[in-house]
């Protein structure tokens, strides 16, 4: 017999998990993105001990039918794309079909779900093995609980940062998702204490206020700009209201939060000399574009994407920011002196 053999399924899933499931926040990201893809208008995130003890996500989305439930936990099983051409116009947050099997391979997972058309179902897996699947009463939507994260991959567990850091990553992630999706009501609760809540009424300025405070929220300037390929919209802080870190800038592409150095550079360029050295604005910007112009299949966690016409977009952002800010300075501040 030769030396080369195929990996068994659980081991292959664990290796895939290495790419997408680095830490508790990655699990929250994958699961909440699933809730978003399932058209939820409400997503509640409940975390115990920074997610190491338990992560529970409850949504009111489409749910999963009984026949699909076990398949959803198989590798490369997805309802979101089917043909090769779909990969070039992905409209959903997920499409790789890797999150659920990856998470189930490194944790204890129970999902209760209902489509609303039929009675609900429960599935329980641990370490990639099916423990049970049975009918269970459930409200329409999906309620998934992940426990004992990395219990069978001790190296992963060791690599985690302090519980405080892991929690702050979850908070940051939930904030960004709420900024990306102001029409979805998110809540984040840690050890029984509510840390964040967004109303889900579509008002981005309110989400900004919920995250950065009312005094920031009310001073943000709306920005809008478009060219034949891109449409940008969002809010900017005045050059007077800055922070010492770049992390208060959020750029989303078709409502997907991404990291892109060129685009944040373009924002800063739009402020020009109005920003002091080492100071950064508070910005939330969504870019609407044809999915054909963006390749999200670059990075397993899809945090980085590849954009065609990136410099055209960067120019649009810079000029949109510049214009918005210069208009403010034109408005005479008579009111203040009265
Ligand atoms: P992907 O999101 O890439 O399709 P996942 O492993 O994250 O892969 O999920 C597999 C499938 O399970 C999804 O395609 C979807 O059909 C279903 N699913 C997962 N989570 C939910 C949810 N919260 N609500 C409804 N369906 C879900
Ligand atoms: Mg997914």
UniProtKB/TrEMBL annotation:
Coiled coil regions in record = none
According to the UniProt entry, its GO molecular function terms are: ATP binding; ATP hydrolysis activity; ATP-dependent DNA damage sensor activity; mismatched DNA binding
The residue ranges of the DNA mismatch repair protein S5 domain are 208-326
Q: Which domain of life is it from?
A: Bacteria
The biological processes this protein is annotated with in GO are: mismatch repair
Keywords, comma-separated and alphabetical: DNA damage, DNA repair
A cellular-component GO term for this protein: mismatch repair complex
Record's function text? This protein is involved in the repair of mismatches in DNA. It is required for dam-dependent methyl-directed DNA mismatch repair. May act as a 'molecular matchmaker', a protein that promotes the formation of a stable complex between two or more DNA-binding proteins in an ATP-dependent manner without itself being part of a final effector complex.
Q: What family is it from?
A: Belongs to the DNA mismatch repair MutL/HexB family.
Name used for this protein in its record: DNA mismatch repair protein MutL
**What species was this sequence derived from?**
Limosilactobacillus gastricus DSM 16045
Q: Where in the full protein does the shown chain start and end, and how long is the full protein? A: 1 to 338 of 630
């Amino acid at each position: 017999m030769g030396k080369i053999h195929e990996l068994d399924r659980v081991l292959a899933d664990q290796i895939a998990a290495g790419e997408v499931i680095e830490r508790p926040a990655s699990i929250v990201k994958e699961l909440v993105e699933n809730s978003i893809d399932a058209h939820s208008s409400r997503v509640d995130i409940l975390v115990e001990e920074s997610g190491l003890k338990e992560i529970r996500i409850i949504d009111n989305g489409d749910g999963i039918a009984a026949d699909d439930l076990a398949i959803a936990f198989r590798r490369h099983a997805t309802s979101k794309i089917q043909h090769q051409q779909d990969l070039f116009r992905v409209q959903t947050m997920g499409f790789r079909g890797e999150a659920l099997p990856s998470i189930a391979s490194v944790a204890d997972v129970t999902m209760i779900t209902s489509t609303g058309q039929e009675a609900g179902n429960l599935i329980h897996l641990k370490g990639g093995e099916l423990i049970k699947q049975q009918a269970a009463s459930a409200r329409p939507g999906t309620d998934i609980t992940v426990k004992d994260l990395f219990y069978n991959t001790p190296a992963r567990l060791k690599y985690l940062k302090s519980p405080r850091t892991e929690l702050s990553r979850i908070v940051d992630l939930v904030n960004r998702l709420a900024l990306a999706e102001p029409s979805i009501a998110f809540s984040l609760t840690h050890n029984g204490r509510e840390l964040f809540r967004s109303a889900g009424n579509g008002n981005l300025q309110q989400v900004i206020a919920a995250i950065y405070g009312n005094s920031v929220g009310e001073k943000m300037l709306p920005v809008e700009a478009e060219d034949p390929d891109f449409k940008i919209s969002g809010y900017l802080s005045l050059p007077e209201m800055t922070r010492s870190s770049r992390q208060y800038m959020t750029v989303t592409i078709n409502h997907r939060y991404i990291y892109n150095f060129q685009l944040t550079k373009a924002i800063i360029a739009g402020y020009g000399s109005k920003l002091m050295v080492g100071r950064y604005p508070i910005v939330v910007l969504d870019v609407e574009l044809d999915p054909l112009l963006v390749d999200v299949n670059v990075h397993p966690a899809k945090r980085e994407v590849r954009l065609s016409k990136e410099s055209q977009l960067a120019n649009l952002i810079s000029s949109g920011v510049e214009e918005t800010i210069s208009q403010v300075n034109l408005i005479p501040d008579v009111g203040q002196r009265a």
